[in-house]
Each structure stands twice: as C-alpha cells, then as structure tokens.
Amino acid sequence: MIGLSHYLIVSALIFSIGLVGVLRRRNLLMLFFATEVMLNAVNIAFAAISHYYNDLTGQMFAFFIIAIAASEVAVGLGILIVLYKKHGTLDLDDLAKMRG
Amino acid sequence: MLQPINVSLESLNLVTLAPMLIAIVGGLVILILDLINEKLHKSLYVMLTILLLVVDFGATLGLGVNERGFFDVMLIDGISIISQLMIIVASIIFIPLALTSKRFHEYSYPEFFALFLFMIAGFQFMVASDNLILIFVGLETASLSLYTLIALHNRANSFEAAVKYFTMGALAAAFYAMGSAVVYGLTGSVELYKVAEVLATRMNETGLMIAIFGSSVLLLVAFAFKLSLFPFHTWAPDVYEGAAAPLVGYMSVVPKIAAFVVSIRIFGMYIDLGVEWVRVTLLVMAVLTMTMANIMALVQEDVKRMLAYSSISHAGFIMAALALDTTEGTTAIFLYYALFMFTNLGAFAMLWISRRKKKAFSNRYDHPYSKFAGFIKIMPVGATIMALFMLSLAGVPPFSLFWGKIYVMQAAVNSGYIWLAVVMGLNSAIAAYYYLKLIVYMFLMEPVKKVDVIYYNLSKPLMVVIGFATIATVGAIFYVQPLVSYLYYMISASGY
Amino acid sequence: MMENLVYIALFAPLVSSLFSALFGMSKRQTFVGVIASTLLFISFLASATLASHIVSTGTPIHVTMMDWISAGDLSIPFGFLVDQVSVTMMTVVTLVSTVVHIYSIGYMDHDKSFNRFFSYLSAFVFSMMILVMSDNFAGLFIGWEGVGVCSWLLIGFWYHKADVSREENPSISPSWAANEAFIVNRIADLGMLVGLFILYWNTGSLQYDVVFETLPSLSGSVLNAAAIFLFIGAMGKSAQFPLHTWLTDAMEGPTPVSALIHAATMVTAGVFLVIRANPLFGMEEVAGVSYFIAALGTFVAFFAASMALVNRDLKRIIAFSTLSQLGYMFAAAGLGAYWIALFHLAAHAFFKALLFLGAGNVMHAMHDELDIFKMGGLKKVMRPTYIYMGLASLALAGIPFFAGFFSKDAIIETAWNEGTLVLWAILVITAGMTAFYSFRQVFLTFEGDERYKAFDIHPHEMYKFVLIAMSPLALLAVVAGFGMGSFEHFVTTLLPEYHMSEHTHHIAWLLGLVVLVVAVGGIAYAYKKYAKGLKRDEALENSFIYQLLANQYYIPQFYEAFITKPYAMLSEILWKEVDMKIVDATVDGIAKLLYKSGDGARRMQSGNLSNYLNWMAVGAVLLLLVAAFSAMLG
Amino acid sequence: MDNILSILVFFPAIAGLLGFIVDKESARVYGITVAAIEFLLSIWLWVSFDASNAGMQFVEMIPLIPDFGVSYYLGVDGISLFILIMAALMTLIGMISMSITENIKNMIITLLFLEMTMMGVFVALDAIIFYLFWELSLVPMLYIIGAWGGNLRIYASVKFFLYTFAGSLIMLVGMLFVAYIYHNLTGVWSFAITDWYALVLPVEYQLWLFGAFFFGFAIKVPMFPFHTWLPYAHGQAPTIGSVILAAVLLKMGTYGFVRFSLPMFPDASVMMITPIAVISIIMIIYTAMVAYAQKDIKQVIAYSSVSHMGIIMLGIFAMNAEGISGSVFQMLSHGIVSGALFMLVGMIYDRRHTKMLDEFGGLAAVMPKYAVIFGIMLMASVGLPLTIGFVGEFLVLLGFYQISPVMTLLAGTSIIIGAIYMLTIYKRTFFGPVTNEANKVLKDLTPTETWSLIPLVAIVIWLGVYPKPVLEPIDNSVKAMLEFMDEKAITKEAKELIIVAKSNQGGA
Domains (ranges, CATH) in chain A? Predict the structure, then answer.
C-alpha cells in the first residue's frame, strides 16, 4: 500500500535531484529547469499531504506554486534572452564579471 | 452537492486589502496611461506614483490594529501596519530619484513604475498576512518585479546581477515552498497561528523535533537568502554593484523589512514555542553575518560595494535583535530600519548623483574610493553630507543610526546577552574603518583627476531627497522618542 | 615692624631678580648690578636687624603670608619663621650674597649676559631665603627646588660652550654639568619628598612645630624611615657620596656662582635641613641614622680631601674642599652637635666664599686658565688676592685663631667626645690633608716661578672695589671664630646644647694640639714641595693611586658606563623594540589581521553563480549542523 | 542665566555654522572673537559659581527620549568647572597663535565644533549625552590631524579615531548595562549619572562594569599599553591639534574615571587600585624612558604627556582628597603646560619646518625670549615648586603614599626621569654653540606668539603660587564625592581605604 510517507520520500528525492541539478549544472537554462523540478517536488508533497489531511489548503498551495513557477519562468527567460543577446552564452562560468 | 458559498461582504473586511489594491490599481493605471499616450514624460509617472503611495500611506494608516480580513488570510496587526508604513515611506523617498538631470532609460519606461507599484503591493502582502501561501505569493510578486527592475538598468552588470539574484532567489523560493510543505505536513495548516496552536500541543513528541528541524532550516535558508545573512549573502554585493544606486539603497531596506516581518512571525513563533536552538542558530548567523560582512567590507575598493557589505552587516545586527525575541528586540528592528532607511537611501542617492555613464576612474568600478578623493574641495556641501551619512552608519552619535544601535544593544543587554552587545560594539568599531576610509578620501586627500563634474547627475528633486535624508539623519535625536514610543506601542499591541 | 623686616629680607632679592630680569635681554647695564647689590644689601640689613632683634629678645618671629596648597586635610601656608637658626642662615646668606653681587659687578664686567646673571643670582638668593625661612617642610622644599633651578641656570650660564670629551674637560660642558647637577639633585629630592609624605601621614601636618610636637608619639620605624628619606634629600643638595659628582662639575659656572652657591649657601642646605629637623635626628630611635650621617660625613670629608690632593684645577680643588668640609658639618650634626655644625657652616661660608672669590680673581687674571700647574708667582701681580686666599686657606686649614680653627676643631673634638675614635682619627688625618691641599694650591698659584709666562698670559689684579667688597669676608674669616661662645649661647636656645664631657674638656688642648700639628705638618709639606716651584714627578703622577685620585676614583666614568649609557640604551630599546615592535605592532597587528582575513574572506565572493549556489547549500548544511548541535547541547 | 551651560555648549556650534558664511579672509578673526566670547562666558560661569557648594550647579534637564531614559542633562561642579575654562582658554590661545593659513576657514569651523564637543563632555550629566559628545569630539580631531598634519597624517588620524572609537563602544555596552540594572531596580529608564550614583551594585557587577568603562577611558587617557596612538597623533597633528589633544581631549579619559568609575563603582575601584597603579607606574617610568630616546622634540612631549597622565591616574586612585584633588589639578596643569610646550614646538617648526633635535642647538642665543618661555614651561613640566606643575604632582604623590609607599617611590621617579628627558631636550635644543647655519638667522618670537604665550606663563606661575581659587572648589567637590563613595561602599576594604577628609567628617 502506498502511503503518505512514500509520497513524501519521492518528493524529497525529486527535491534533492533538483537541488543537485542546481548545484552542478553550468547552463543557466538547465539551472532554471532544476529549480522547476524542485518546485514540482514540493507540489507532490503538498498534494499528498493535502490528501492525507483531507484538506484543500495544500492543493491550493500547489496551484499557487504552479502559477508562480510559471511567472518565474516567464521573467527568468526574459532576462536570459537579454543576457544571451549581450553575451552570446548562457554558461554561468562566463558570468563572473563582478566578484570580490 | 456543494453548498453555495455564502460569504458576507462585511466578514471579508475588504478594507484590509485596500492598501495593496491601491498599489496594484495604480500600477495598472500607469500601464493604461501608457497605452493611451506613449510620449508621457517620466516626471508624470514619478508624481503619479508618489500620489498613489501617499494614498496608500493614508489607507494603511487608517487600518485598525489587530484585524483580520479576506477569509482571515490578511492579518493587520501592529507590525504589519508599521512595516507597511515604512515600506511606503521608503518608496516615496526612492521614487523621486528617478528625476536625475541625466537620462537613464529605465525611468522612461512606464513599466518601471508599474512594476515598482506591483512590487510594493507584493511586499505589503508579505507583511500583512500570516498565511504561508499569501506570504509566498507576496514574496514572489515582489521578487519577480525586483529582478526585472534590476535588469531594466540595462547594462551588462545589471543583467549579471539580475541573473544571479534571480537564480538564487528561485532556489530560495524552492526552499521556502518545501519548508511550507513540511510545516503543512506537520500541522495540517498553513496559517501560522494555527500552526503554533497545533505545535504547542505536540511539543513533547520526540519525532516532531526532526520535522521542526527540517521546516525551520528550510525556511531559514529561504529567509537568510532574502535577508542576505552569511553564508547566503553572496548575491548581495554583486547585485548591489550591478543595480542602479537608488535601487540598491531601496533594496537594502524595503525587501529586508518585509522579510524581517515574516521572519518575526515564523521564527518568533518557533522561539516562543521553546525551540531554543532556533534562537541559537539565528544568533550564530547574526554574529557571523555582521563579522564576515564587516571584514570583507574592509578590503573593498568600491564605495558602492562597500556599502553593500555594510548593509549586510547591518542586517546581521538586526538579525541579532530578532533572535532576542523580546518586545524591545522587535522594536529595535523597526527603529533600526526606520533610521537606516534615511541614511542609507541618502548615501546611495549621493552615489547616484555622481554616477556617470562611463567609468572614468576605474575599469571595473563605478564608484571607486579614488573618485571621491578631495571631494571636499570639489563639492564641500556634498562631501559634508556624505560624511554625515558615513558617520551615521558608523554609529557616531548623535546621528540617526547611533540611536538604532544603542537600542539594539540595549535590547541585547536587557535579555542578558551582554556578549552579544560587546560583539556588536566591536563590530561597529571594525565597521568604522571602512566608513572612515571614505571620509578620509573625501576630506583628507587631493583630487586624483581634474574632474569637476562628479556631481554629474544632480537635480532639484535629488537635492530635496538628499536634504530630507540629511535632516532625518542629523535630527534623529528629536524624533527618536515619538518614533520609539509609537513603534513600541504598535508592537506590544500585536503581542510581539 | 619686625614682620615687615621679614618681608623685606625675603623679597628684596626677588625684586632684585625681577628688576634685573627686565633687562635680561638688553645689553650690559652697570646700574643693574648696582641696584641688585643694593637690594641685596637691604636684605642683609633687614636680616641683620632681625638677628639683633632675636638676640636681644630671644623670641622668634613667625609670620604667615597666605595659604598655598590646601587639599583634603593638607594645608600648607606660606609661613615664615625667623628664629635663631634661620636668622643665622639669613644673615650669612645675605652677607655672602651681597659680597658676591658686588664682586660680580667686577667679575662679570665683560660678559654680555651681565644683566641676566644678576637676575639669576638674586633669584637664587630669594630661593635660599625661602628655604631657610620657611616654617614648614613644603616651604623648605620650594626653596630647595628653587635653589636647584637657579643652580642649574647659573652652572649652565655659559650655555653656548660646546660639549667636549671627558679627557679634555671632566665636566664636559657647562650645560652638561648643569643638567647633571639638576638631575642628581632630583634623585635626592625624591627622597626628601618621601620623607615629607611620611611625616605628613603620620603627623597630619608639614608645619615644623606640629611635626616636631607629634614626633615622640610615633613608632621607631616611622621615625627611622622619615629620617632616612630626609637625609637622602640632604645628601643630594650637600653632595654627599654617592651623589657628589655634580659639585665639582658645577665649577663650570662663573666663579661668583661657585662662591655663593657651591660653597657658602646652597650646598649647606642639606646640613641646614638636618639641623632644622634636629628634633627628629636627635631622637633616641634614630640614633642609628644619625650615626650613619656622621660616618658618611666623615667618609666624605676624607674622600673629598683625597681627591683634592692631586687635582690641578684651581676651582675643583676648592670644590673638593667644600665637599670635605660639608662632610665635617654632617659629622658634627650626626653626632648631635648641631650648633657646632651650624657654626662651622657659617664660618665655612665666609672663608670658602672668600677662597672662591680669590680664585675668581686669579681666573680673571689668567684669562680663565684654571690649571695651577700653569700658574705660579702670581703674588707679584696680585698681592691682595694672595693675602685673601692665604687667609682663607689658613682658616680652612684650621690654623689658630682663624675661623676654621674654632669650628673644625670643635667638630673633631666632638668626634672624640662621642667615643667614635675611628671617626676622630679620620677627621684628624683629613685636617692634615686639608692643610696640605689648600697650601699646595696657594703656593702653586702665588709662589714659585712664573709658569704662566710660557703661555703668554699677562695677569692683572682685580678692580679695587671688588677687592674692597671682599674685605668683609676676609675679616670674618679671620675673626668669626671669636664669636663662637656667644653664638653657642644664641643658638642653643633653640638647638640642643652640646657639651664636651669633663674628660674631653680636660684634654681639649691636647686634641687641639694634635690637629694643629697635623695641619701645620700639611702646610709645611706643601711648602717644601711647592713653594719653590713645581717639580713634576712623573712616576708619582703615573702611579695607580695618583691616577685613581685624579680621576675621582673613576666614579664619573662608572656612572657614565653603568647608569647613563645603560639608561640611554634601555630607553632606545624600550622605544624601538618594545613600544614600536611589541605594543604598537600588536595594535597594528590586530588591524592587519582583520584586513588580511577580509582579503581571505572575499575569496568566497568568487563572482561565480555556481559557487554562490553551492554556498547556499553549504549554508543549509551548516544550519542543520548548528541546529543539531545546539539541540543536543540544549 | 540658568542656562549658561547650554550657551557654553552650543554657542561655538552655532558660531561654527554661521562661520560657513564668513569670508575666508576674516575667518581667523571671527574664530578668535567667538573663542574669546566663549572664554569670557566660561569665566562668567566661574564668577557665578558657588565655590562652597560641592554639588552640581547650573543644572539643566530636558527629557529627550523619556522612553529610553535619555535626557539633556547638564551640570557643573568643582571638578569639571576648571577643565571647562581651560578648554575655552586653550582653544582661544591655540587659535590666536595658529600659524596655519591653508584652508583657514575650515580649520576655524572645525575648531569651533570641537570646542562644542569638549564643553559638552565636561558638562554632560547624562551618560548618553556624555557619550554623544565624547564620540563626536573624534570627528573634528580626525579632520584636524588628517587635513593639516604631517606625512603620516592619515594613518595617525585613522588610528586615533578607530582606537578611541573601539574602546568607547565597550564603554557604551557598560553604560547600557548600568541603565538596564537601574531599570530593573526602579522600573524607570534613566541614563542620568546622578541617578546612577544611587545604585549600590554587587561587587562582581562593579568589577565587570569597571572593566567596560576602563576600556573607554584608558584608551583615551591613554594608559599603557593603549597609548601608541598618541605619539602618532601628536607627531602628525598640526600644532593646534596637538595643543587641544593634549590639553583637553586626554583629560576626558581621566575625567571619566573621576565622574563615572569612582562614584559608581567604589568597591571595584578600590580593588583595582593595585592594577591601575602598576599600569600608571609603567606609564610614568616606561614612557618617560621612551621619551628620552626620541629624536623628535614633539614626540618627546607626546610621550611625556603619557608619563604625566600616569601621575594623574595614580592620583585618582589614591582614594583620598589629597590625591584626587591633586589629580584634577594636575589635569589642568598638564593641559596648560603641555599645551604651551606643543605651541612652542610648533613655533620652531614654523620657522625651520623640522622638529628633529639634531637640527637644533644653541637656540638660546638666537631666540632668548623663546628659550625663556620654553624654560619656564619645562620647569613647570618637571614640577618645580611655585609653578603649576608642582601642586598637582605633589598632592598626587602625597595622596598615593597613603595607599602604597613603595609604589609612590616608584612613581616619584617621575620627578627624576622627567627632568632627565626634559633637560636633555632643552640642552640639545637651546644650549651649546649654534652649529646649524639655518639656526643662526632664526627670528625670536613675534609679538603675536609672545602674547599668546604670556597668559599661559602667567597662569603657570599664578596657579603655582596661589592655587587656592582653583583648588578649593575642586577639593570641595572631591571631598563630597569621597564621602559619598565611603557611604556607598559595601566591602570592608573599600570602607577602610577610602579616606574621608577629617574636615568633612563633621556629621559622622
């Protein structure tokens, strides 16, 4: 029987995968995807907990997260496009003009 | 069969939403105006924004203390009112800085002003709710607007800054969301007051602690990022360097006020529940933040970057006040920011007036120290005012921040954290070095180049803003009393 | 009326000093000297009148001018006490001063700082008057320090002279000698101050009368401590071993200064202090200290005389002799014969001043040449001076019936009387040495062949008025001794009486004869050796003893090598190694450490976004760790 | 005029603000006039001061931040009165003798602000107001040293600022803690020193607080080993800066000990006598030796300041009226004398642009007036009786003898080693032949210089001969303070060691 804890473990695993992605990826676009993965992991957790408590709040939160993730992508991609126009690359190792 | 939802308009208490709605509607109005006529001058938008903010201010002022509204997700308690007021005041001071004598193209976009107003609404939502969902929505609304505002400065550095901020912000958002999920899983609620109730009954369960660990650490990461606490501060210097000076001044105050309010609600709750290690963790972070930021600020070559580190260090100071979790500590947070706001905005405004399109003094920096060498000879009044801001930041009495500092330190002493007060004192001494460095450059050195146009960007509105900041900085001794007593009243009224 | 006289006696020198100071920077004005001398003479007259008043009435005059310092329970007034002891000193001081002032008009004739000289000289007299007249220890200390400063100013009067090596001039330079004198005196002054503190905290006052009244109720250790520290003070001013080196170096000053300060008055202040504080020094409890004073005095008498034996410098010989005579005075005071000490003090003042002034004449004549080996036969051109110096030397040698005979003899007798035979023997031998070196000097200067001619010097006698001015001293050097009886009667109303025992009294003539024989022997030997001319004895002069004496037992060199130089070196080390490299470097080190750690810390700010994100993750882990730790600890 | 203290504090500040309008050419006259008026005001304060009243006079109190207990609370007693007058006098004389011409207007304005802070420190009776002026005084001094100083001026000024700033922040924590205790005991917030006096603290608290205040004061004094900023500050500062630094700013530290540490922590003060005395003796001997090794005249005087401050510190901890009154008097004496000495060094520096001892020699022949005044100041500095320097030094040593004869003896070496370095520089500067050609044509003091020094000479002699008008009010206040301390002390040792003057024991 698949219970709440299974969902949560899956969620945690996906979250970790996303986190590793954020830490290891060098391409900004991939990095954004990784954060989306993390947010979706959270969504799984919310949905599962919501079901567990039989309470709609969690699902509501999940919807909000989806919405926010979407706008994040919108804004993020916008910035990436200008950046790409300026730099011609999305490799974040090239993005270190400011330091110290 | 679902029952039709029957909600009375009165129980919604929509007036609690009024301030945010004013900002949002105002933003929309600006966008519509732009649709109607594309050639409107930025001064129109500036004044319009100010007007809207004044109305917003009035609406906030009119709110009654300790009210809930809109399905009880809005929480209008003392700290939400004072933080909203501070956010609005800071915004009112900030926005005239758009009226420089030279053109910076972001201000010619009406979108800038619309985004700005949306951002304010976002912050207002953050502080006016104890619902994790609404906080998240407010946080993201504000952050996304802010990323865009930074990027609008339209230089390579500002894009880099925006990307760094954005990426790390996204990660922090994920942490926040995960933290909320854990809290929700623990208690079945995302309303903090309910969370606190549930937790209070279950505090003796051993398994609970691990979950609290998880939730608080996850949330802490998210807010430590927002508050630029060590080691989550790494974005701050780069973003501050990349963004336009006034926006930096704004960023070092307003988002932090909002984040602090949320932190007070969340971590204050944990501390109140008796989770002592949250306090310890916060204190460790606070001390690390003020110290590390200070020593890194020592070696900066650029004034703006130095000020970035300095604001990080100040955030550490305030974090320590938060960790005390006493009414005085909480009052100290707001008092400190209320005073810091003027001085810091003033200082960045001074940088703003010296901003040139080309980097005349250094290949890398806009505002290297050497740019200000002999400033006293070029612009005596400007140098004196800048020096006043620096002295205030260093905590030299009677300038404004001194009062904030002693209030924080007194709060620490009162809670028995004398070592903390001593650490704060020593940090202030270290910090004095880099503020002094600028004063030394301005007053004691000869100008490096024959640049008589350092005050390149000066205009009347900027002078007004700077003048206002100066008066607020110098005359602090006269308004600290009413300010403290108001803040203390509001905060103790809302039970913090 | 008498009170006014007190003020006149005290302040006339001050007025004189201030008046001369007005012209201190202008060119030489004879009237400055004349007026100064007149004022000093007025002071002398006032003192003399006071003396006769005291003699006739026997009641001391005590005036309090005003408050000086009062803090806490301490209250020090400017109070002046004219009693038998102080009036003696006043008279002696003002008399010698007047003579010296007049003398200086002639002696300093060609000096461009003529006016300044009188200003300093009168200031000295003023300080000396405060010293002797004060009615409390603090006031005494004012004068004490005041004479010190004036001595500094006057020794260094010819400040423009450059430092030379010790071989060339044992005193290096006037300014060097002045500083030495001041600093050495300061060492003793510290002792004196501590003495005052002891007295104050135990008696609650610094007034002589209060202090002396309370003394009997104090414990022995306190009394001893007070006596020791006061005597340390006295040792400095009176140049007792080991603080004696400055006195011979002080001869760098103009000769009138040597006469007045370093012979007649200031150097006797130490003796005066012991006499003044006789209620303390005379106590049973401090007998040890008093005996030490006597022993030290005896030792110094011999020690100084030994150095005088071989010295070639006219003034230094007299200086050593002064030192030696101070030893005599201390011996008397230490043995309890205060009035004898005081008497010798007065008598010595007269003949020693005379001797110095005579030496000044010689020096003037010889164009500042002081080496007696380069003189000789001066009696032809300087007969009056010869007579004066001869008389003074006779007095010094203790030939009957000159002043020194009475006073010195009494001291030697006292030593016998106290049963301190060792002291007695040394004092007797010293008397012989005194006679020898005095006449060695006189003969080498005035008798024999005219060695100065080889150096192309044309000596000439001093001005007439100067010689006349010296006459009162000559007179006193001759006759003062006859006043001994009445003097005893006069001062012992205040000072403890001192009587020889029956036995001593009995053999007094024998004792006197012994001394006389020794003294005459000394003179005779000197005559034999030097009167006919100078025959240098290379072997003797190169002998160890001779060299030891000529180099003042190498004490100045010792001080230089073991005190002055190490002090300078230590100072240098403290500054460069400790202050700069440890104390200051620590402070700067902290600052640098902070700065360096800033440099280190900024490396985490690599600018690379990936790094930043990793830092966030690291931070999260750290937070977990901190949380776990504090949860476990809490 | 009940608010004369406010006038004293703010008159120079207002004048400083108005000074921005005054024309550059007239700035100097403006400054002198203002300083003269200020000085007259301070004299007026003295005239209307009631010498027989040992308590605070001309008290003003306006609550500023009542919620926090901060009020604008001023008052003056015998201890602070004369330091005020001296501060006004030294500012005036410093301005008159000032030779700076570059940026003169800025200098004048800075000096006027500095004067405000100095006045403020000595009249403040509220700890926060005290702290406010205390810190604020650093800023004008930083500018003076940094803008008109020598080659290392920036290093010196920053070091001065940061060092003092760091110390005083620890003191601030101490102040906050006292306020907290006061609040705990009474339920009222107050930073008023007079309120704090009433606190009887446990010994352990006293010790900690004493330590906290010690950092603030000791660095300012400066006590060994916190003294190294001073030689730099003095060495680099322009003459006027050194004069005011030595005359007034250093006194803030010792004044702090008298105003705060002693009456607030009597037991801790008594327990700390030995450590402080040891430090003081190190200051006295060690820095005097270091002074002897200096090659630069100004550095000699700078180090000698440290040495003299050691005497003052020793006197404060004598715990009897003789010592403390003497100490306060010595503050005045040191202010006048070292101020004058710095002015004198400045005058020769103006002529030769060097302060190195090697460059000089035989100046007495070339500049007799200068030599005379220097000599008088030197004698005052080594504590010659009948000069101002003796009274304080004598009383201090006398007072401390009560505590420890041995330490007094050690401290007393100051009269010897003080003479050593002072006479050495005097000899090397003024005596001997004039060897350096450049010195042969030196001009003696100008009338301005002479007349700015003569008042100081007059004071040096006047207060040496007749110190009573000054010593008496000081002594009254000190006696009252000691009596108060004695009553308040809780440990037996403290009760024993604090000596209440007999003349003051009437009631008991």
Answer: 4-98 (1.10.287.3510)
